[in-house]
Design a protein that fits this description.
The protein is mainly α and 102 residues long. It has one domain. 83% of the residues lie in helices and 0% in strands. Helix 1 runs antiparallel to helix 2. The protein is rod-shaped, with a radius of gyration of 35 Å.
Length: 102
């Protein structure tokens, strides 16, 4: 995703450089050059905004999944602790001898 956006940006920049070079050698009108540069700036800006939006979404999903994993681990540890606590409460010492005095 990021690489394709960078690739598109580089291609657009190269195209702009070629167009500007051809325009300069042909002594094109300055308004044409400024229009092309403006369009390229707008394209780069929109691609950067899209890339940032996708990065925010991916970061949010990553954080959510990490939090879910942590909560699952904590829940598993709590269940294990509860089982161990219940096992210690259920243990009763065995009486093996009975002594009685008359």
């Amino acid at each position: 995703m990021f690489n394709s956006t960078v690739s598109k940006t580089i291609k657009a920049s190269l195209l702009t450089a070629v167009i500007l070079g051809v325009s300069a050698t042909a002594q094109a009108d300055n308004s044409l050059i400024s229009d092309v540069a403006s369009n390229i700036e707008q394209n780069i800006s929109s691609q950067m905004q899209e890339m940032m939006s996708k990065a925010q979404t991916e970061l949010s999903l990553s954080i959510q999944s990490q939090m879910s994993e942590m909560m699952f681990d904590m829940d598993s540890e709590q269940e294990l602790a509860n089982k161990q606590g219940a096992a210690t409460l259920n243990e009763q010492p065995l009486v093996t001898t009975a002594v009685s005095k008359d």
